[in-house]
Amino acid sequence: MTATSETNQRLRAIARQAMLERHLQPDFAPAVLNELQSLQGAAPAELADLRDLRELPWLSIDNDDSRDLDQLSVAEPLGNGAVRVRVAIADVDALVALGGAIDGHARINTTSVYTIAQTFSMLPLRLSTDLSSLGQGETRAAIVIDMSVDTAGVIVSSELYRAVVLNHAKLAYGSVAAWLGGTAAAPFIIATSATLQAQLRLQQQVASRLREVRHRHGALSLAATEPRAHYEADRLIDFLPDTQNAAQELIEDLMIAANGVTASYLSSRGLPSLRRVLPTPLHWDRLMAEAARVGDSLSTQPSATALNALLVRRRLADPAGFADFSLAVVKLLGRGEYVLEMPQAPVPGHFALAVQDYTHATAPNRRFPDLITQRLLKAALARRPSPYAPEELAALAVHCTAQEDNAAKVERRVRKSAAALVLSDRLGQRFDAIVTGAADKGTWVRTAAPMIEGRLVRGHEGLSVGDRLRVRLVHTDVERGFIDFERTA
Hints:
The protein is of the alpha+beta class. The protein has 3 domains: 3-278 and 349-419, no CATH class; 284-334, no CATH class; 424-488, CATH 2.40.50.140. The chain is built from 14 helices and 18 strands. Helix 8 (194-216) packs across helix 9.
């Protein structure tokens, strides 16, 4: 066995144990696998009553290695500068029976868990990457969210319906972003298709309009940088900063719009639903303190518009440090959550996105709330009662929020163990770092290169989030994911 395979096995064992400790199931039970064997793709007769939209130039943009494709998009000009944009969502509910074994596993975990060592898919891979995936060249059933966007970026009309779709181009974020930004030639599939080039330009245009409207309403212009594992010859050697690119922004903007339209549609049909919310920050005073720390100010009353104006100013004043400032803001905002929404009953909106009506509907292969929403949508479209009672939805909202938090902790736990492995032979070395957390429970710093977070065990007195310092690595523990630093002169 090679050293690399031993390392991978070690991290996978850590990941599996972390899953179990966080009440997540790392394996599919025999009943799930038995049910999976009986699944078949949709027969032609089952698609006959759906709208046939296969001729539209649908495309997908996702990570290079993604095979569980949840959504497609297509746009067309309407005249006078308006654009019609359609988002197609994989009809996962058609294959995952409510109350079945596969549904039961998904209901427990509620999300796919993406660790450096291994991905723990919410649904069996044959289902999520084959039978329900909107893969290139595959005819699939889908839920279509059909929106018309005017020149000001306002969604002036929308419609939802079931349809048959066909993915004409599976594209990757990196190569699309490089082409859109003019930093690289188009990949072959784009270079040889004028239709595809026009599609991408038009989708980028309408996505930008939608984004501008949200930012005018106070959507936060954040740019928090996440660490990305870097391999050479299958060996983990580093963690590098990973920032969002233009293609990811394009898809994000279209999905935010589609999720908002979906939430409004369910409300208009009188059905309860799961809303995705981020309430107004409880610790606004800490955001005010963060603004003062960098020589700026923030209004005394919570305001997304005021906070976004601060972010815009900081990006201009300190471009190099903006990602770190964004990270501090993200941590102070807190995490989103799922809540039950009853028709005509007010619920909190999403503070960071500056939208009132918002749900999760666009990733049913990867998130259980999206599958729940899809079932509610199909009930609304067929004018049937909700498949879930309000009390059940309320309990699911709490459970999905908790499991999402557990999944994030598993991902972070494995990333820490992997980082400890990368640093295990560098004890005593010094690094440039920034304080990412300072509270009674401890002070945390993140090194610049490699981009790794650890605990500051000595020399933390008087430090605040955002302070820059030099640290020395004094201890690592791969099994527990511990990385300890001390402050140096």
